[in-house]
Design brief:
- The chain is an all-alpha fold.
- It has one domain.
- Helices cover 73% and strands 0% of the residues.
- It is globular.
Length: 127
Amino acid sequence: MTAHYNKALDTAQLILYCIFIYWLSNQPSLPSPMLFVHQDKVMHAGAYFVLAFFVLRSFRHFSGSLPVLVLSSLVFSSLYGLSDEWHQSFVAGRMSDVNDWLADTLGASLFLILFCCYKLRAYRVDF
């Protein structure tokens, strides 16, 4: 029963975070002061860094293989970023930008690389 509960909870968290990203993208503008050049790219990368965390937690219930888990998490995160940019092209006051999608994919990749480094280090055997 606990495994089923964890699976449902992890999936619900992923869905809620995807809805949150969708809601943000549906706003005509976001009230954040520009502190530095390309701040929006850092924000995109940060949002998708977090998305990759939720994707990985949800997808872990469907794959026992680390490479498959990481690759499927990256593909999902990147495709969600692509769909988010497409969605923004229909929102008044927003525009679609391939560089935003690249920042999304980079943020997700960064989380997944750090996760793989952690996993490999955790199972390293010292001789």
